[in-house]
Write a structure and sequence with these properties.
single chain; alpha/beta; 8-stranded parallel β-sheet; 12 strands
Length: about 350
């Protein structure tokens, strides 16, 4: 499913599936680029004992993510992301031979960069448990990040900076109010602009008014482009609404940590502060962990009031018959040399 690529086009598979799974439902922050991200406790999120998965330019100037992915062309993103070996990049193979901005490196040259193929035939019933070895292609990097995070083994995704809508600017709202048009919370931007025009506000006047913050970073789009982007956000939120049964079947929980997100109509909302408290309770709070006495030889650190524990093997389990095949060589992984598996004797006699 995931692989490294060389500049000559050869591929080396990388095994990442369920690599980040754990003994409980492992959490991961999904970081969006909405303006609300600046209002969140970003320092605490950045230092929390939990992976951070950023999408496109999300998190820029606020945090360095653990994982990163994008759908758009390479030229729209930063050299420091591609060349940062601490960030694992998940990129579609069509971007592999692009040049990293302000460099002569190919994207496939970059450290910690793995590639994947896309699947355009995935419906709601198959998301996120797809039948193939590709990442779902619904023309959206946010959906792409959710699918990759699931495949990595995360089962609780904490969505922060993910409004999935664009609000009209306060200047436009004030002008609309003067003509009797009131913005409805999370209304489609295109519908609001149409009502303004129906109220005889010229579109040129609407376009001339200051646009509201569309991202937490310094970037904005024209009115028409913002309308299309907001419609895209709305469509994505409905994709996820229609996928709720398959998400539940897959054991994947989406929790919105964004106060005014379109997702809050259909998914659980928890403030980031509450989520951080829960994370520190479940995983530990690095800020408050003590070190004194940890090197003592007779240290006991079992949970209080712990009952008896004993490790058992499953009934009829024969560890000798469950031998792990030897590690495959790169040549075997590429299909050059067939793998040699140990012979495992099989007892066909019926057992009680």
């Amino acid at each position: 499913m995931f692989y490294r690529l060389q500049t000559d086009g050869t591929a080396d598979p990388v095994e990442f599936q369920n690599f980040y799974s754990g003994p409980a439902s492992m959490p991961c922050w999904i970081v969006g680029g909405g303006p609300s991200l600046q209002e969140e406790p970003i320092t605490e999120i950045r230092n929390s004992p939990c992976s951070k998965f950023a999408v496109n330019l999300a998190g820029c100037h606020l945090l360095r993510p653990t994982f990163w992915t994008s759908y758009d062309p390479t030229v729209r993103f930063h050299r420091s992301v591609y060349l940062d070996s601490s960030i694992i990049k998940f990129v579609h193979r069509c971007r592999a031979m692009d040049l990293v901005p302000e460099s002569t490196f190919k994207v496939c040259d970059c450290p910690a960069t793995v590639f994947f193929d896309r699947d355009r035939d995935v419906g709601f019933r198959d998301f996120p448990i797809t039948t193939g070895t590709k990442i779902v292609d619904w023309q959206d990097s946010f959906i792409q990040a959710i699918h990759i995070a699931y495949l990595l083994g995360f089962r609780t995704l904490l969505l922060v900076g993910c409004e999935l809508h664009i609000r009209p600017s306060m200047a436009l709202q004030r002008r609309a109010n003067a003509s009797g048009v009131v913005y409805k919370d999370r209304e489609l931007l295109g519908d609001f602009v149409k009502r303004c025009i129906d109220a005889r506000i010229e579109k040129k006047e609407v376009e001339s008014l200051e646009s509201g913050p569309q991202y937490h970073f310094d970037e904005s789009k024209s009115l028409d482009a913002a309308i299309q982007t907001d419609l895209h956000y709305f469509r994505v939120s409905q994709y996820l609404r229609l996928s709720r049964r398959s998400l539940a079947t897959a054991g994947l929980q989406l929790i919105s940590a964004t106060a005014n997100s379109r997702l809050n109509d259909d998914f659980e909302y928890r403030p980031a502060e509450t989520i951080l408290t829960d994370l520190h309770s479940q995983v530990g709070n690095p800020k408050h962990e003590i070190t004194k006495g940890l090197y003592a030889e007779d240290l006991q650190r079992k949970p209080a009031k712990l009952g008896p524990m004993r490790d058992f093997q499953p009934h009829f389990w024969n560890s000798k018959k469950k031998a792990v095949p030897p590690a495959r060589t790169p040549q075997q992984n590429q299909g050059v040399v067939p793998p040699e598996l140990p012979e495992i004797p099989i007892d066909i006699r019926e057992k009680p």
